[in-house]
């Protein structure tokens, strides 16, 4: 019988009489566990507990907060192998990628443990004689976190850790599709000594629980990662309440390949960026913009590398590509493949594989143009459009011609073009001779345009969103 996993509210494990079956996308008959399916009442209880617990957490020694976060990070790292297997089973990432994500989560907690004792301000000279001025950072109160299924432990970690380091209390609503890793993170924080009510986990359907969390008057801020459509609705609700909001949404990230690129490097960079993690990354390289002189040779090499990818059980160490995360996601991907063909692309791969689980061959859409829907709309699967351009200037124009602006990349051996692209790319992150996906835990993460709204995540700059600044004057006479 599968284990029944419950919410963590006010330091107690509590559930409802409804459950969600957490199934393995590579083997849907494998039930990882039964996870409570909460109702809105559970969200209200979690917010109430957080509101009650937050003042004492905020007034505690920053060393105490640092110790809790550091211990949580150490526990995550010590259990990396087991957590990676859980992540692979519930989301479908290959084991190596899953372990890398777990390590990133552990390192995030340890990094923000340090930020808890570095939460500084400024002491400034006043323009008025006899006055002192100082600024301090203070927590917001209760913060609601809504996280996606594609990074089921890294994203909850990089949101929760800075929120807690700043002295906030947290209510986390993870994706219903992948609750297992968030549940384990909650268990670890509880074990690490996080006081009752400071961190609360509420699992269930986003449509039912998200609105309650976003609309609650005692929730001071919302940090959300997910689709642009949902993000816009959250932004509208938060704006009406004058509530602080942070959104990380979609991407249609370009990777430019210039004629002077190292062909082998370019192929590996694009193979990784477009298809690894089964393309289920908001930073994936879904538009490959290739200069005419290298186009044919690049396509030939990339197609051979695509066709040779080993697709299979993510727990098999020889596997390079696991399944798509769900039947619904796979159906959307297959529809995008059909649409690309209808738009006039030559499609290589993209078919559903004849085996148990939600497996799809990675797809290249050759002969694509930036005006096609498949080159403009986020697919969120192992699908990449190849767009031929005449020169560097056209490549930059096509790269920037998108409603998104998360990550952008270029493969070139020209310092001149690399430097120009870093300056001209309308994106929050720029990669040179590296995949568009993959950002260290200690540097800012976020984008522009339809990709992001609010402060950056990760790194010390993440503390900006989870704090408010107070300016205080003292007249000394």
From TrEMBL:
GO terms assigned for molecular function: oxidoreductase activity, acting on the aldehyde or oxo group of donors, NAD or NADP as acceptor
Active site: 248
Secretion signal, residue range per the UniProt entry: none
Domain Aldehyde dehydrogenase residues, every copy: 18-471
InterPro entries reported in the protein's UniProt record: Ald_DH/histidinol_DH, Ald_DH_C, Ald_DH_CS_CYS, Ald_DH_CS_GLU, Ald_DH_N, Aldehyde_DH_dom
Keyword Oxidoreductase included in the entry's annotation: yes
Keywords, comma-separated and alphabetical: Oxidoreductase
Keyword Oxidoreductase appears in the UniProt entry: yes
PROSITE patterns membership: ALDEHYDE_DEHYDR_CYS (PS00070), ALDEHYDE_DEHYDR_GLU (PS00687)
Pfam families reported for this sequence: Aldedh (PF00171)
Stored Gene3D superfamilies: Aldehyde Dehydrogenase, Chain A, domain 1 (3.40.605.10), Aldehyde Dehydrogenase, Chain A, domain 2 (3.40.309.10)
Family indicated by similarity: Belongs to the aldehyde dehydrogenase family.
Protein name: Aldehyde dehydrogenase family protein
Source organism of this protein record: Halomonas icarae
